[in-house]
Amino acid sequence: ASGMMEPSTACASDLGFTLVLMGELRRGLATMRDADSGADATGHPPTIIYATSNMLRIGMILEDRAILAAVAAKMGELGERLGAPRFSAYALMAEGWSRMQDGNEEGIAMFREGHDIMLSYGHHTYTPYSAAQLAAAWLRLGQVERARRVLNEGFELLDRSGARWCEAELHRLQGELAAAPNRGRRKVARAGAAEAAASYRRSIEVASLQGARWWEVRACFRLAALLPAVERAEATRRLAELHAGLDDGSDVAELHAVRAFLAQAKNNPLLSKEGARGRSSPY
Length: 283
Fold this sequence. Notes:
- There is one protein chain.
- The protein has 14 helices and no strands.
- The protein is mainly α.
- The chain is globular, with a radius of gyration of 20 Å.
- It starts with 6 loop residues before the first helix and ends in a 7-residue tail after the last helix.
């Protein structure tokens, strides 16, 4: 059937995607890029859209603008040539995402339009993650309540679809919302920090059970940075372990921040392995 994908290409793309989430960034990205090239070589639209939509998601996950720019160009051209709304939706999301990173509300509107087109197709496997990306964009603009509303949409989509692959990220973002600067009283801020820590720990738990090392790194980094210095030794030790287990091979901004944090922690006796002895785990 014309709507069927070329199976080996689709499987290779999914394998690469899974490897990245497991923390094998180098091998995962190489596998995905091979699958993407193979899909293009088929000239078969369903196969192309499958592999390219995976590239879109991995570009967002690793915050790689070059990947997103390539996806936007390819999907935009195919959308125009074939008059296919789904291709155009992915182009809108790829272009909108890059603009969202710069705090551009027009970019949020573009991304939302693409997200809504996918919802109209009943395509719920990846829409919880898209909702989380919208929440992150609103949070960057300081619009905490708008971010919270769209993240709640993401949790509803997650429950409706059962697409738990990105659940850890939604919990991590819930933590970011709770930790957002609050102009209220100090007691409120303390409560927010406790709520954030609980969300980060939930994210770590879910990611660990799934073997999603990349999600676990992100949540563990946020937890370690959030905790007071005298309490963060165990989280920092676990972050160092997780980082050491990554197959890096790419220039990922998140990892630069993680390495800077770990380098600083290495020179702080409170965060040394000796300092961690006798302390209870934050997990």
